[in-house]
What we know:
Largest interface: A-B, 16 and 9 residues
Radius of gyration of chain A: 37 Å
Helix content of chain A: 10-25%
Order of helices and strands of chain A: EEHHEEEHEEHHH
Distance between the termini of chain B: 51 Å
Oligomer: heterodimer
Shape of chain A: elongated
Number of strands of chain B: 5
Protein name (chain A): Large ribosomal subunit protein uL6 N-terminal domain-containing protein
Number of strands of chain A: 7
Family (chain B): Belongs to the eukaryotic ribosomal protein eL14 family.
Largest sheet of chain B: 5 strands, antiparallel
Strand order of the largest sheet of chain B: 4-3-2-1-5
Strand content of chain B: 15-25%
Strand content of chain A: 5-15%
GO biological process, one term (chain B): translation
Structural class of chain B: alpha+beta
Low-confidence stretches of chain A: none
Distance between the termini of chain A: 48 Å
GO molecular function (chain B): mRNA binding; structural constituent of ribosome
Mean pLDDT of chain A: 86
Protein name (chain B): Large ribosomal subunit protein eL14 domain-containing protein
Amino acid sequence: MAPKQKTRNPELIPGVRKVSRSKMYHKRGLWAIKAKNGGKFPVHAKQEAAAVVEEKKPKFYPADDIKKPLSNKRKPKPTKLRASVTPGTVLIILTGRFKGKRVVFLKQLTSGLLLITGPYKVNGVPLRRVNQAYVIGTSTKVDISGVDVSKFDDKYFGKQVEKKKKKGETEFFEADKQEKNTLPAEKKDDQKAVDAPLLKALESVPDLKAYLGARFSLKAGMKPHELVF
Amino acid sequence: MPFKRFVEIGRVALVNYGEDYGKLVVIVDVIDQNRALVDSPDMVRSQMNFKRLSLTDIKIDIKRVPKKKALVAAMEAADVKGKWEKSSWGRKLIVQKRRASLNDFDRFKLMIAKIKKAGVVRQELAKLKKEIAS
């Protein structure tokens, strides 16, 4: 830090300074500057005022003043992840059809949702998105260094847009329905590709596969606020 | 039923309420009918109400209000920590702490182990029953 500047004219009481106006003139050395410049205090040359351009007045004004909304440059960020939720952590899902299932967390998508997988062979949970709020992060970690999740994003999980069919007979509808119910083979392959290295990592820790296959439930005497996850 | 654990200088007690909950302390002096001066190697010497102390069986040999160094030396000589951890009360507390710190995966492994053990015991019992029946 710079040393405290010495004030030439301290304030003794609010409103009363130590040195008088004439003494201050002498103290500041204004007499010496004047002497150096031949009796006059040096002044900057006056700047020419910029020429004012007269804007042409528009011919038509709108009848009412329309208020312009304020500009908003905010860019939403993905939700902040809890410290307990890191890639490779085993999570316990709390709601939905997979409630109680223990699942491996892969990465956070740009929407803020968490990308998880069972793995499918172990507990039937496929590659899926889940909200951080409905999840408990345990302290058990799985090694996911061998898994490549770069191709998954929110669009992958979006609802497939169906082409609008013109109003047809009921027979048409039945035929269409049967086509759409099965998962496309591509998604099944993606699941297998993600799960293969994961299963290998699971085998290396004893009981971990059985752990992921079992559901979590509160038993008698378990107090969630006292449990260490 | 005579009393066996007395409040005396050198009595080791367990703190059962307050900031120092769970610590083993030594009664170093008695202030009045309700309070004692207690000290421990890892805390500043302070007063404590007897209601906050649970007396243990362990007693060490010290003079009234010893210096910290003398207290620590006496505790080492009497091996307070070792005696405590061997006593059934001390062992119970250690087990409680361990159970409370179990992680979700640990609890799962514990459940599997209990089931396996019960299975083995049941098998042996079935064998013995068969022998008796035959």
